[in-house]
Amino acid sequence: MDTVPSGHPGRVPPVAALWAGCLAALLAGCAAGRVVDGAYENPATGFRIPVPAAPWVPVTIPDVDVAFEHPSAAATIAAFSTCEGPRRPPLRILARRLFFGLKEREVVEQAPVSLDGAEALRTVVHADQDGAPVVVESVVVRRGPCVYDLVLAARPRIYPAVRPDFERLVAGWRPLAAGP
Fold first, then answer.
1. Of 20, 103, 143, 144, which has the most beta carbons under 10 Å away?
2. How many CA atoms lie within 13 A of 21 on its CB side?
3. Of 179 and 111, the one with more pLDDT
């Protein structure tokens, strides 16, 4: 059992700045998880995802459960979760909050999906982040009182190359038996 290392002190990954700025207020109260047998587990909110293989490296982003940066590409994968009780806003509203702070955003894909029997919504957005184009793909999953956000942010030229790693992470999402 390992803890997730904290990345490079004082250095914000290129795309990870997206999360630090526009999501911090939404994500307060996330509990720390751990890596067990090649998967990240968060017992507080009850989910497990596979850790992306090298060259992805763990990085710390404030108020995000776990994040990984691709060191040779401008790409970040992040996962975060909240458990709020009986509030049940529509998934499209939950997905939209992930894109606050991005300029000139255009939803290019949005479709319902199912992850391990839980309802989910996959969204792909093309946007501008600090004057540079970015593609953000999210899968928002709702299970019981909890919402799980799985997000990939990458520059458009890099996105097709790193998307399969994100797809493997999404396909491997599982609720923990002892979750909320």
1. 143
2. 13
3. 111
pLDDT at 22: 35
Distance separating alpha carbons of residues 55 and 129, to the nearest angstrom? 24
The token pair at 164 is 């399969």
- Mean of all residue pLDDT scores within the chain: 81
Nearest alpha carbon to residue 67 among 133, 12, 108, 112? 12
Question: pLDDT band at residue 147, thresholds of 50, 70 and 90?
Answer: very high
Please report which confidence band the pLDDT of residue 51 belongs to, taking 50, 70 and 90 as the band edges. Answer: very high
Q: Which of 143, 136, 78 is nearest to 110 (CA)?
A: 136
CB within 8 Å of 78: residues ≥ 6 apart: 16, 19, 61, 64, 65, 66, 67, 68, 149, 150, 151, 153
The residue-averaged pLDDT of 109-136 equals 92
Closest Cα to residue 84, out of 24, 28, 152?
Answer: 28
C-alpha gyration radius of the chain: 15
Q: Distance (Å, rounded) from C-alpha 57 to C-alpha 61?
A: 13
